Amino acid sequence: MLKIENLHARVEGREILKGLSLSVSAGEVHAIMGPNGAGKSTLGNVLSGRDGYEVTAGTVTYNGIDLLSLAPEARAAAGVFLAFQYPVEIPGVNNTYFLRAALNAQRKVRGESELDSMQFLKLVREKLKVMQISDELLHRAVNAGFSGGEKKRNEIFQMAVLQPQLAILDETDSGLDIDALKQVAQGVNALRSPERSFLMITHYQRLLDYVVPDFVHVLADGRIVESGDKSLALKLEEHGYVGIGESYPAGATA
Amino acid sequence: MNQPASLPLVASLLDAPLPASGVAWLDTVRRENRESFAAGGLPDTRVEAWKYTPLRALGQRQFASGDAAAGVRVVDPSTLALPGVDGPRLVFVNGVFRADLSALDRLPAGLTLQPLSQALEGDAQPLRFALSRHYREVGDAFARINAASAVDGVVLRVAAGTQLDVPVQLVFVGAAAEADLAWHARNVIELGEGAGLTLIEQHTANGELAHLATLVSDIEVREGARLRHVVLQGAAIGASLIRRSSLRLHARTRASLHVLELGGALVRHDIQAELTGDDARLDTRGVFMPHGRQHIDTQLAIRHQALNTVSSSNWRGVANDRARGVFRGAIVVAPGADGSDASLSNKNLLLSPGAEIDTKPELEIYADEVKAAHGATVGQLDERALFYLRSRGIALAQARALLTAAFCRAMLDDLPNEALREHLAALLIAHLPA
């Protein structure tokens, strides 16, 4: 589904990704772990098309298409979803209105019929139950005045409504207490399916207690320096990032 | 300095014959204002109030006076309708009263509503005070020519204690004509003690035109009265529209003003409010949204002159293309107006590099125990919010429109009439660049 090859990317003239390669198949959950400054968030931002990230080499192929050539909205319509590390507050834009506009914009691009407000409301009600979100959030402006936990849950709720094929969760666990973390994890687990893949970017292992990944990768200094199954995450938890990747000379140049 | 009368505009406006009223005092007022207009001409940008609105181009133009065919110009009545507004209506086409388009039957008890032309034919005396103003500054040029030349407008009175439960609608239609026209309307509005009125003022276009219109409204709000005034300015894209609204708020009055400025090539609105009675309160909300090469200038001046008076002003500007917006918010808390509370905010958005907005909040306080806050900003759309919307599948243009509408929408939130509020919000969105 997703194939990243030798990806190099710069931010403000500084090279952050230095030859990252990764392959994700349908239905898989991949965790990307790594120390601060390794390039974790850069990876999420490059994949979702944020301005200011310059790809200098490498390719990203998503379902056979060149993902990097698409505008952010086209990537979304093609099924890519980024759950933001810092969801943006948008005062004055109603959450429900926003989400319906987003869903219908995607459906239109895909040649599907747009949902009217009744159909949309029905869909939203179903998803709310899964996410255990009170419908009061729907009537508020997008993320405006939301607590940290509410913002993260709103991200997962949006994901539940938009039904992406590839979900990138950028430190969705950061800043959450254990109850909020469990709720978010439950939402993610409810969305796992053979057709949907996840890229979970995280600094800590604890999210992986609740969303068990198929693969764990360590990102350090702009590339994947070690890959394994979920036991790798436990190893990291025990020993930290020190020493990881030392057996990979190319990764130790920093 | 200009030789004032040698400006083509001034000469063409003076070319119009003085309307004769047969009322001696009115003839004198008109003549004197005409003379001061002839002597003073137009203000240039050295006059502070006109610093950001140069009149050079307008000064070189000429306009035919009035519209002899205004009574028969075809106006689609559906263009006058507003959702949530279905009450008495007074319609003017190119400044001329149109009984056929108006709705003056079944006026509620306590409401006097008639065209100025008719009011003057009857008993002119009650209008003497309102129409006897002299304008001393060269910056008042358009008020002068209006006082000299206006032959029609609105006379609206709400009797003391009368609460009108239907809004009164005033519509000024600019209609395409064979020549560029100048027309002038004078409105005299008074709410008696304890009266209540919702007033919808609408400026609309009927075809492509480049007329010059001036409107002067004097609004007196007597003790304890409550006024809600909504202005929807959708004049023709080529029109020049110069308005002045003067409000006097007596003790314990509540007045709100919502303004949406969308149309016109050269638009100027002077709002001059005096809070002359204790505990008077004025809330103003406005959005100006010039695009193309439009120039929209709002000059808001509020004087607190009595104890514990409150004013709250919140305005948003959005300029696109090569358009220009101007906002000046000047609040004076005069000596003796102790305990007053004045707040003013003007936030602006530039949607393109060629657009410009000049904003200037001013606050002068000469009283004690005053609460005052003012601020103004000019910025661009939040890139992070744009990306957030796009990352969810919303295309760039739609994302920009959504954020821009959200930026303005709060100005409409406290409009009591929901149907009208939704209509105005939809107009805002329709006005945004695609």
Helix and strand layout, with pairings?
The complex is a heterodimer of chains A (254) and B (434).
Chain A: E1 2-11, E2 14-24, E3 29-33, H1 40-48, E4 53-62, E5 65-66, H2 72-77, E6 80-83, E7 90-94, H3 95-109, H4 117-131, H5 136-139, E8 141-142, H6 148-162, E9 166-170, H7 178-191, E10 197-202, H8 207-210, E11 215-220, E12 223-228, H9 230-239
Parallel strand pairs in A: 3-10, 3-11, 6-9, 9-10
Antiparallel strand pairs in A: 1-2, 1-4, 4-5, 7-8, 11-12
Helix pairs in contact in A: 4-6, 6-7
Chain B: H1 8-15, H2 24-40, H3 56-59, E1 64-65, E2 89-93, E3 96-97, E4 111-115, H4 116-121, H5 128-131, H6 141-149, E5 152-158, E6 168-175, E7 181-191, E8 196-206, E9 212-221, E10 226-233, E11 240-249, E12 254-261, E13 266-275, E14 281-288, E15 295-304, E16 310-319, E17 324-333, E18 341-350, E19 356-365, E20 371-379, H7 383-391, H8 396-409, H9 418-431
Parallel strand pairs in B: 1-7, 2-6, 5-7, 6-8, 7-9, 8-10, 9-11, 10-12, 11-13, 12-14, 13-15, 14-16, 15-17, 16-18, 17-19, 18-20
Antiparallel strand pairs in B: 2-3, 4-5
Helix pairs in contact in B: 2-6, 7-8
Key phrases:
heterodimer; A: 254 residues; alpha/beta; six-stranded mixed sheet; four-stranded antiparallel sheet; B: 434 residues; 2 domains; ten-stranded mixed sheet; 20 strands; globular
